[in-house]
Structures are given as C-alpha cells and as structure tokens.
C-alpha cells in the first residue's frame, strides 16, 4: 500500500482495501507465509546437503569425483520438478488466504464497509 492509493481511490475504496489488508493481519497470514517460506528453505538446504554427500548420485550421473559445482547443477536438475510442485502449493495457499479474507467481514459481523463498498460500485 502506498500513498498514491489515497490519491487514486475514493474514501470507500481505500477503506475496503485497508479492511482487506487488516484481515490478512488479523488472520496471521503474514506469519503463516513466513513460516511456510522458512520450512521451504530448510527443506531445500537439507536436501542439498544430503545430495552433496551422496557419492552414489555422482557415479550414477557418470562423475568419478564430487565437485561442488557439479553437485549444485545436478541438484538443480533433480530438484526442479519438486520445486514446481511446491510452487503450485504456494500459489494454492495464497489463493486460500485471499478467499478467506473475502469472507472476513461476514465472520466478524462487520457488514457496514462491505455493503458501503458494494453500494459505491452499484451506481
């Protein structure tokens, strides 16, 4: 959110956007995304460490030694499909958080700004 938002939107629209962002904060979506990202990084580093120390993987790809750069490249090729799956799950959780915020005013019985916002777009 930037100060240009106030210049480009009317007061009702700004209140709707602020209510949406406060809903993310109230439902701890920022903390949940941070925890998911940290777990994701931990899994990547753990698997990379396991991959780098496994001599059988190097020999199965035709390497006699274990250079670090080769291990990094092999890990990138092997881990790429897993990363696509995890990326899909991250997008799924983002949409799940977004849709839960859409229903946030109804869960908290705060319909005033929601209906005011709808009335604004009706005209």
Compact overview of the structure:
By secondary structure, this protein is mainly α. It contains seven helices and no strands.
Describe the protein's architecture and organization.
With 123 residues, this protein is mostly helical. The chain has one domain (10-122). 82% of the residues lie in helices and 0% in strands. It is built from seven helices and no strands. It has helices at residues 4-8, 11-26, 29-52, 55-60, 68-102, 104-107, 112-122. Helix 2 (11-26) crosses helix 5 (68-102) and helix 3 (29-52) runs antiparallel to helix 5. The radius of gyration is 23 Å and the shape is elongated. 2% of the residues are buried.
Secondary-structure blueprint:
Blueprint: H1 4-8, H2 11-26, H3 29-52, H4 55-60, H5 68-102, H6 104-107, H7 112-122
Helix pairs in contact: 2-5, 2-7, 3-5
Q: Mean pLDDT, nearest integer?
A: 81
Shape by Cα distribution? elongated
In the predicted model, the low-confidence regions spanning at least 5 consecutive residues are none
Distance between the termini: 26 Å
Which sequence of SSEs, written as H and E, runs from N to C? HHHHHHH
Q: What composes the largest sheet?
A: none
Assembly annotation: single chain
Residues in helix, %: over 70%
Strand content: under 5%
